Predict the structure.
Amino acid sequence: MSPLIIDFLQQLRDTTWLEWIGTATGLVCVYLAAKQHIWNWPISILSVTCYLVIFYQHRLYGDSMLQVYFLLTAIYGWYYWRKRDLSSDKPISSLSFNQCLITIAAIIILGASLGFALQRWTDTDVPYVDGMCTAMSFGAQLLMTRKILQSWMIWIAVNICYIPLYLHKDLAMTAVLYVIFAGIAWKGYRDWKNTYFTLENARTSTP
């Protein structure tokens, strides 16, 4: 058997109960987000709390800080979506081309800045990878709280980037989770896109 497969299976056997809980709740909350279900936010709070501890233990400091941000945005997203539920209005919006360029530039600048800070002031061995993944996740989460379509495109990219990173950090179960996340993100993007264009066509066809 290949040494890589043996190492992967060993990582799975060594998965802690905390990572199992974080993995299970993370999977559920992303699935519910793709379905525009408000309960994705409280379940997300449990998941990010688990991963805050896990990532700190594995010296992924950028991801640790990101979990604090996720916790705050989950609380905000829960409030914002609940407010929209009460008003029976949950529109999905889309960024313009210029807004997309600004978002990409902001992510790159933030990622490079975080990478520099992590390299200079922490003992992480993946400062710029950690920093860039953190910046992408930061942007995706912010857009998702406002129900912006392009949030899923960023999630697809960052989920793919996280897979080798977590394998490098001996977090095989989390790497498997992010493979699934990438698939759910793609499904979420297609579902939100269909909803967005259906509503747009309805608005333009209304006299």
About this structure: The CA atoms of residues 26 and 95 lie 26 Å apart. The chain has a mean pLDDT of 87. DSSP finds eight helices and no strands in the chain.
